[in-house]
């Protein structure tokens, strides 16, 4: 069981551009069954956690039934953002306090820290991320939401090419990986 931050990034370290768009990502070829593909991740995941911006992006861009069968949480102080019928929990507090619940819900499988760098930064700062898998697209955005907006140290564990992406699996370098600013 691992806590995995799985995401995509532009070469200059952004998840979404200044217009909150993922067009730079979704317009590129990637094999969902290829190295570090989403299908492999989803098969290993037992619970999912994300921030409110990621949840709201999913609701806007993939409306309808909730797409993840895994128990899911949104970190937010606004529980009313959850769409009726979505089996999604909300949580407002320290991620270190939530993590045991995520692990228990995962039932021996992985916890997926999805999407947003701000949420991932909270998990990294608490020393809870065991690995970070980033699919790097061949573009730069110049600005937007950062992949990981805190100083932290990582070591490359593995890499591969998948479609147009260079994918890297990183592990924390040192006790927790996070360092003070």
Helix content: 10-25%
**Secondary-structure element string:** EEHHEHEEHEHEEEE
Low-confidence stretches: none
Structural class: alpha/beta
Count of beta strands: 10
Q: What is the C-alpha radius of gyration, as a whole number of Å?
A: 16 Å
* Arithmetic mean pLDDT: 93
The strand line-up of the biggest sheet is 5-4-3-6-1-7-10-9
Euclidean distance between termini CA atoms: 29 Å
* Shape by Cα distribution: globular
Largest sheet, in brief, is: 8 strands, mixed
How many helices? The count is 5
Strand fraction equals: 25-35%
Q: Topology, please?
A:
Elements: E1 3-9, E2 14-16, H1 23-26, H2 38-44, E3 45-51, H3 52-61, E4 72-75, E5 88-91, H4 95-106, E6 110-114, H5 117-125, E7 131-136, E8 145-146, E9 154-162, E10 165-172
Parallel strand pairs: 1-6, 1-7, 3-4, 3-6, 4-5
Antiparallel strand pairs: 2-8, 7-10, 9-10
């Amino acid at each position: 069981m691992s806590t995995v931050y799985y995401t995509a990034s532009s070469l200059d370290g952004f998840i979404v551009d200044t217009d909150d768009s993922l067009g730079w990502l979704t317009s590129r070829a990637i094999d969902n069954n290829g190295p570090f593909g989403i299908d492999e991740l989803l098969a290993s995941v037992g619970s999912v956690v994300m921030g409110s911006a990621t949840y709201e992006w999913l609701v806007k861009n993939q409306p309808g039934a909730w797409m993840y069968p895994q128990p899911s949480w949104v970190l937010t102080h606004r529980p009313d953002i959850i769409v009726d019928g979505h089996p999604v929990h909300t949580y407002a507090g320290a991620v270190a306090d939530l993590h045991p619940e995520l692990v228990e819900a995962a039932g021996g499988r992985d916890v997926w820290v999805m999407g947003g760098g701000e949420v991932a930064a909270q998990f990294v700062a608490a020393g809870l991320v065991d690995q970070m898998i980033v699919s790097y697209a061949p573009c730069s955005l110049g600005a937007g939401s950062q992949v990981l907006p805190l100083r932290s140290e990582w070591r490359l564990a593995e890499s591969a090419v998948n479609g147009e992406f260079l994918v890297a699996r990183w592990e924390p370098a040192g006790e927790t990986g996070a360092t003070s600013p």
